[in-house]
Fold these 3 entries.
Entry 1:
Amino acid sequence: MSRIVEVSGEGFRPYEVVIGPGLLAGIAGISEVRPGRAVAVVSDDTVFGLYGAAVVEALGAAGARVGSVVVPAGEASKSFGQLERVLDGLMAQGLDRSSLVIALGGGVIGDLAGLAAALFMRGIDFVQVPTTLLAQVDSSVGGKTAIDTPRGKNLVGAFHQPRRVLADTDVLKSLPVRQLRSGWAEMLKHGLLGDAAYFDRLAAVGDPVGMADDALADAIEQSVRIKAAVVGADEKEAGARALLNLGHTFGHALEAELGFDEAVLTHGEAVALGCVLAFGFSAREGLCPPADAERVAEVVAAAGLPTQLASVGELTADGILARMTEDKKAEGGRLTLVLARRIGEAFVARDVDAGRVRVFLNASGAT
């Protein structure tokens, strides 16, 4: 049985996030696929090898003019070079303003293909088909598209909402354990920022590996509903949407310092550790109860996710701080962090003293 969550807001056309098993097999039946319409499937070599041929065949059987652009798997493909490659592929295949891009893959592909769709002829339709848990609960919903630069993550991008999101839960069965846990980190984040009862529900599961299909689908739906509500109220991150960055300013800095090497630290792992650091810093500053910070670390550890800086590599406080000041949420060189008053109640703290963060990072294991 499929679950449907509507994403709507003042500044964009509403769309549906459809969650359930077997959705990939029915992709040709969605309203965005029409006979004669040019469709480009953008994917990475790993995902395309698993699902690409079947998707292209189904779209072709529905009468669409189908082409594909396949990039290497991994965070490194969120680059100017690969963006140019995708855009050139869309041009070579004869797409026009009435065409459709289908992003078939994880968060990297969703971001890359979404940005290409936003730029191509000043914006064409695209459909998100997220194939990782992380992408299903986070990056596929909300219209943020971006690439990385050597100076930081997601610094070049655009807001471009999809026309539909198809979150096929069957594809999650092929995910490596580490990637499943990485998606779980974003789900924990949703509870931490605004829904303590949801966090408690996830905490009771502990490690998501081996979780029953229906229970996982229910949790995905709740995470999508939390994000949809925030996005609907604040599409361009002028206010409440910034709360979704809980754990991300620390996490993005760690990813950048480690060279965006997912073999060392996945994005979800960075977010999990970032949430632990955000709650730890909040407790150190007297903003939230120390018991809450301790519980966050315990729940994150129980899910098989990192909680200590030393566990991910040799990191310096100065290096992490330099990355944090380059973050797109920083303003005028001042640190902007999402901190917490308690589990389920996050807030945006502006003009945070970098010196106090340095002291905290040193105490947390940075050199």
Entry 2:
Amino acid sequence: MKKGFFLLACCAVLTLVVACGDASGSKVNNPNTVKLLGASFAVPSITIKKGSTITFVDDAGDGSLHILTVGKLGIQESEAGAPDFGGLAGIRIDIGESWTSPPWNIAGTFHLTCTAHPATMDMIVIVT
């Protein structure tokens, strides 16, 4: 009886630990974090070091569906050295979700856009 209770208690604790984790698997404590607001990036540009990633967080209180891609004015454009943002489909981030980009391994200036908000959502990434 004691073994059954102990096993049940361990399962309950494990369930709580898993439920409190980040379901998206991204690093929400990434120092290079950019909030996605209703129809804009919280910042117009970000400067990061080569090899770094960027975590995009769709604000649960002021967010909306975002589809991020490399490009400008809502149009996907290939930029040599930019990491993969889901190809032509882009990366879909729903309200309250987050996504961490692959590493930015090439120094340079890159452009990101949201195809759901083409008139208002462009951002520059400067990799040093």
Entry 3:
Amino acid sequence: MKVPGISSSMKRNSIILFIVAVLLFFFVGVALGSSGEEHGTKGWVATDTYRVMNFAVLFLGLFFLLRKPVSQFFGARIKGIEDQLSELETKKKDAKQKLGEYTAKLAQLDQEGKKIVDDYIRQGNEAKERILKEAETVADKLKEQARRNIDYEINQAKLRLQEEVLEKAIVKAEEIIKNEITIEDHDRLVDEYLKKVVA
């Protein structure tokens, strides 16, 4: 993430100056601390000046030698961190976008699930109504068939009953005729029959 108004070269220079200042204070403190107090003398001696000068020359030499690699190192490090931050921002945006997509898909799946359940309920109700109608139709057909069978059986029973009654009536009539017919009635019936045949 870049800070507006500050270039990367300015950042590098600032960091290098800060490091140099810290090292300078550290080594100057060491040089001053190693002055003549340890040997029992007080104050600044000529060897201390040479030591400080040696340190300054060494420090400046190291500074000029290591300035470019250190600045490159810190520049590369800063660039790497900026790249990582940029990549993380991109990943964050992508993750938010994917989260939005997945949330939309979840909502859509919820709606599709409800639609599928509603479709199954509707199909179940339609199947129930169709089965009930078919059952009513079959029941009506069975009732009609039973009614026809009953009517047929009743008619057959009536015919058998009529035949039995007729047979018994004929038998009874024959008995009556045999018992009550005389020879004269017999002759008269034969004559009437012959007249009808001849005519």
